[in-house]
Each structure stands twice: as structure tokens, then as C-alpha cells.
Amino acid sequence: MTAIGNRFIVTPNGRKMFDVTDELHPYLNGVIGLSVRDGGHISCREIKAAPSPAS
To answer: What is the pTM of this model?
Structure first.
């Protein structure tokens, strides 16, 4: 996942899944969130967050 300001781009395995911009409630720093819906589950061994390399 790439986050640039209030824009989020998710590209698992090189295939773009979504590209969205949060215009209503953007968190522009200091926040990470995971969400599971409709009775789903998530299991994470490790989560890392780092700045994107400058382009």
C-alpha cells in the first residue's frame, strides 16, 4: 500500500486493487488502521510502516 497525503493506492502482487482519496476525514500523519468487516478475521505476524522513498 502506498499513502500519499490523503490518497491510498493498494497494489498487491503488482495488480492495482484500489486507488482512493479520503476527502472527508483525512488522517495526514501518525495513524495506521486495519479493518475487518462482516465477521471476518485478520491475523498479522508483523506490520511495518515506513515512509515511501522520495521520487
So the answer is: 0.54
Q: Above pLDDT 70, what percent of the chain? A: 93
Distance from C-alpha of 25 to C-alpha of 28, rounded to nearest angstrom: 9
For residue 20, what pLDDT is reported? 93
Cell numbers representing residue 7 in the block: 490518497
The CA R_g of the chain, rounded to the nearest whole Å, is 13
Residue 37 has a pLDDT of 86
**Are 42 and 36 within 8 A, CB to CB?**
yes
At 40, phi and psi to the nearest 5? -70, 175
Q: Is the separation of the CB atoms in 32 and 11 below 8 Å?
A: no
Question: Which of 37, 3, 36, 38 lies closest to 22, judged by CA?
Answer: 3
